[in-house]
Amino acid sequence: MVTLTKPEFVTEENVVYCRPQAFNDVSTHYCPGCTHGIAHRLIAETLDEMGLAEKTIGVAPVGCSVFIYNYFETDFVEAPHGRAPAMATGIKRVLPDRIVFTYQGDGDAVSIGMAELMHAAARGENITVIFVNNAIYGMTGGQMAPTSLPGMKTTSSPLGRDVELQGYPIRMSEMIAKMDGAGYVVRRSLHDPKNIRMAKKAIRTAFEVQVRGLGFSMVELLSTCPTNWGIAPVDSLKWVEDHMLPTFPLGDFKISTEVSEIKA
Fold first, then answer.
1. Are 227 and 220 in contact (CB under 8 A)?
2. HSE-up of 220 (CA within 13 Å, CB side)?
3. Which one, of 41, 204, 182, 205, lies nearest residue 125 by Cα?
4. 3-state DSSP assignment of residue 160
5. What burial class does residue 84 get, using C-beta atoms within 10 Å of its C-beta: 0-12 exposed, 13-18 middle, 19+ buried?
6. 67, 189, 204, 220: which is deepest, by most CB within 10 A?
7. How far apart are CA 38 and CA 143, in angstroms?
8. Cβ neighbours around 6 below 10 Å, total
């Protein structure tokens, strides 16, 4: 009879990854290479770590963001296209003890919903906006968005965005940062591990701003859309770095004095 012994090099296993409890036990069905799933996970991890999931209400409008309802084990409501900040305002005022955040794409937040977003920031509504910028309309067919880059080919600008005819990309974080009611406005990216870690820290700070009642907070996340960009998923990550970052530079655009104390 042979007795098997554990080799010396085998050690006890440590869990280094687990599904956030703020997630439902389902798989996402975004396109390959889309970084919406990464953004979802960062939000879910943050809610778990801060113990906020049970008191959180998410608001998402029309677009790829609408799928978020399927994946989170938190309360969610659906807003008409572009109206998430307005709906979030009403929810937060009625239920001020809840954590309320919107999850919006660039076509939604910077086009049809720009007024709602700008005025929520101007009023200093104590809500958090997660703004996912992939420079194109995703769900509706790959049309040019207000954030599409100069020369960028889309289904509605097949020859490339002509700035003389269609204007320049709108930099939303820079605009929102000018609002007196905004307490925390930053832009991060999801194209590599380093920037993903920085994005999570920003999301946590944004929720902390809301917990402490310090006003409006927004985290813009540069994201990929390989399907509508017409490139491979791996190439889309490089495209963000080479093309989106020069137009949408990463950084902190508004950190109020009170918020800087949190980061310190």
1. no
2. 29
3. 182
4. coil
5. buried
6. 220
7. 23
8. 7
pLDDT value for 101? 98
- 81 Cβ contact partners less than 8 Å away, ≥ 6 residues apart: 61, 62, 63, 108, 112, 113
Tokens of 188: 């991060």
Sign of CA dihedral 129, 133, 139, 140: positive
Domains and CATH numbers, the chain: 36-263 (3.40.50.970)
Rounded Cα distance between 21 and 122, Å, is 34
Instruction: Tell me what the pLDDT averaged over the chain comes to.
Output: 93
Asked if residues 238 and 229 have their Cβ atoms less than 8 Å apart, the reply is: no
| CA 104 – CA 30 distance, rounded (Å) | 15
Helices 193-211 & 36-50 angle (0-180, nearest 10): 50
Question: What does the pLDDT look like over 41-53, one tens digit per residue?
Answer: 999 999 999 999 9
Does the pTM surpass 0.90? The reply is yes
